[in-house]
Write a structure and sequence with these properties.
This protein has helices spanning 3-9, 16-42, 51-76, 90-113, 130-154, 156-166, 181-197, 202-220, 237-243, 248-251, 261-266, 290-295, 300-309. The relative contact order is 0.14. The chain has a domain at 87-283. By secondary structure, the protein is mostly helical. The structure holds zinc ion. Zinc ion (ZN) binds at residues 149, 153, 162, 166, 243.
Length: 316
């Protein structure tokens, strides 16, 4: 590990104010974004939009709010300064994100339209306070997300797809959505039915989706935030960085997307606030271009063999 990485892992906060800010950054961003969405649920503005479009409008606004703050904080206050340097993967990161989001939306629409899930929100669970429904929905969805993610590390055929997400050598918000679209759709198929079957209302489903989006941005951000007690409940950036270690003893941990409940129950929660994280990435090779990355799971063995000796245009 280089000296630059070691020193950057332990940001020296100049003063007490910055230390306090490092503790409140995560909750402040979540609460402020959620407040924007809550305002959208309760207000009648903008009045020219119908109620569904109004909620979507405010969700996008709250997401943009968090995105702008994180972009600013990553420049001003990085957790690891070396991760500010370009890895040449921004076009691939954005292309994966677009394909990923588009295909996942289609899968959600198709799954939600199935008759088996059609009466969601009609039962007693749908009459509970919204906050309770959101907690129920998150715990249920997380069960599917946890196992889909864990199997994508432990089953070699699934790892071929998930390795694209783990192939990056730095974490920042631009590679939050860098997933092979088949990898993401496996996660949705594994988690959405659990949430729909709880019977929570559509508003609760929107809130679970929004919180998932907020926490997803935060887990990858290169901002010097401290987790504190939040590490015991949520998948914070501090926990998620360990998940990107190429060492299986460190990387095969913290599979939860939002919550760490199932990691704690199944023994994969890794909490090392005082240890130094080394380099991140994968031990296998990965092509640099988007189209090649889409294809590589299907030619995995041949690509690994040939690129190890001949090809220098790989991430590792
Ligand atoms: Zn993973």
């Amino acid at each position: 590990m280089t000296e630059a990485l070691v020193t950057a892992d332990k940001p020296r906060h100049a003063g007490r104010v910055e230390q306090i800010l490092s503790f409140i950054a995560w909750p402040a961003l979540v609460i402020s974004s959620a407040s924007i969405l809550a305002f959208g649920f309760s207000s009648g503005h903008p009045s020219f939009l119908d109620v569904t479009l109004r909620k979507a409008w405010f969700f996008n606004l709250s997401y943009l709010w968090m995105l702008c703050w994180l972009l600013l904080l990553e420049r001003r206050w990085p957790w690891r300064r070396a991760w500010q340097r370009s890895d040449g993967q921004l076009p691939a990161d954005l292309a994966h994100t677009l394909l990923d989001k588009g295909s996942v939306q289609m899968t959600i629409i198709l799954l939600s339209a199935l008759p088996f899930f059609a009466h969601r929100g009609d039962g007693w669970v749908g009459t509970l306070p919204l906050a309770v429904q959101v907690v129920i929905g998150m715990v249920a969805a997380e069960f599917g997300l946890y196992w889909a993610h864990r199997l994508s590390h432990e089953w070699p055929i699934f790892w071929r797809f998930h390795a694209i997400h783990h192939s990056v050598r730095r974490l920042w918000i631009a590679n939050t959505g860098r997933f092979h679209f088949i990898d993401s759709n496996i996660s949705v198929v594994a988690s959405l039915p659990f949430m729909l079957l709880t019977g929570i209302s559509m508003d609760a489903i929107i809130w679970v989706s929004a919180i998932t989006a907020y926490l997803g941005l935060l887990t990858h951000c290169n901002v010097a935030m401290r987790g504190g007690w939040l590490d015991y409940l949520f998948n914070t950036p501090n926990l998620h960085r360990w998940h990107h270690s190429p060492d299986p003893a460190e990387g095969n941990s913290n599979y939860g997307q939002n919550l760490v409940l199932w990691d704690q129950i199944f023994g994969t929660w890794l909490h090392r606030p005082d240890s130094e994280l080394g380099e991140i990435g994968i031990v296998e090779r990965m092509p640099r271009r988007f189209w090649q990355q889409l294809q590589v799971p299907f030619v995995w063995t041949r690509f690994q063999r040939e690129s190890a000796t001949a090809d220098t245009s790989t991430l590792v």
